[in-house]
Design brief:
The protein is an alpha+beta fold and 229 residues long. Helices cover 28% and strands 28% of the residues.
Length: 229
């Protein structure tokens, strides 16, 4: 992705937040046969005491593990958050060039192939993760024997992310009043209304404008000629 300092996300927790909210991701592999891409849901593993660690778990359907040559080389996982068109109708008259706001993360790592038992556990956690919103959740324990037979058609993977590049391009380069107008436009029922994208913009704006904690403020500079020790 283009390296634009104002839009970079460097905090691993912000990337984990993006994965939690948008678990449907794209896996891209540069194989001996060429580029291969697939799409699967991912979960995050608990980072434990290492706040910088990002570990993803998922599965692929056979024979995708062969097509991707999983475990033999690094793969790229692309996570796409809210994104949408920003009309210049929401800008001052002299600003007439539209753009596309988005939140996106690219994560790299070499997949580890899970054992059959661990794969089944991860599949169960994946189902439970999404079913918990349902009024009557359905888990793999409804018929574990049948679920285990179906699970043989999948291969579980764990990806310990070794590096990532992430961007939250949310009009940070615009004046505050313009940002407010873009948020209002996205929250409107018009053709490019996008409340989720507006919420991301509002979150970034509010964090940037929040009053700093007094304890985090730098100490005042000593007056000229006074002792600095």
């Amino acid at each position: 992705m283009r390296h634009t300092p104002a839009f970079l996300m460097t905090d691993p927790e912000e990337v984990r937040r993006l994965v939690r909210a948008h678990p449907w991701a794209t896996i891209v592999s540069a194989t001996t046969e060429g580029l291969v891409a697939s799409h699967y849901p991912f979960l995050l593993e608990d980072p434990g005491d290492d706040a910088t660690e990002i570990t993803l778990v998922s599965h692929v359907g056979r024979p995708d593990e062969v097509a991707h040559e999983l475990g033999r080389h690094e793969v790229l996982v692309i996570v796409q958050g809210p994104h949408g068109y920003v009309s210049p109708a929401w800008y001052p008259a002299q600003q007439f060039v539209p753009t596309w706001n988005h939140v996106t993360a690219h994560l790299w790592g070499t997949p580890e192939i899970l054992s059959d038992e661990e794969n089944f556990r991860v599949l169960g956690e994946l189902v439970d993760h999404f079913e918990r919103r349902m009024p009557s959740p359905v888990g793999l324990d409804v018929d574990e024997d049948a679920a285990r037979r179906i699970a043989r058609g999948t291969v579980g993977i764990r990806i310990r992310v070794t590096r990532f590049e992430a961007r939250a391009k949310l009009s940070q380069n615009k004046a505050p009043e313009v940002v407010d107008d873009v948020i209002a436009g996205l929250e409107s029922p018009g053709p490019y209304g996008h409340r989720a994208l507006a919420a991301e913009m509002r979150r970034v704006r509010d964090r940037a404008t929040a009053a700093p904690d007094p304890e985090d403020r730098p100490a005042p500079e000593p007056a000229p000629g006074t002792d600095r020790t």
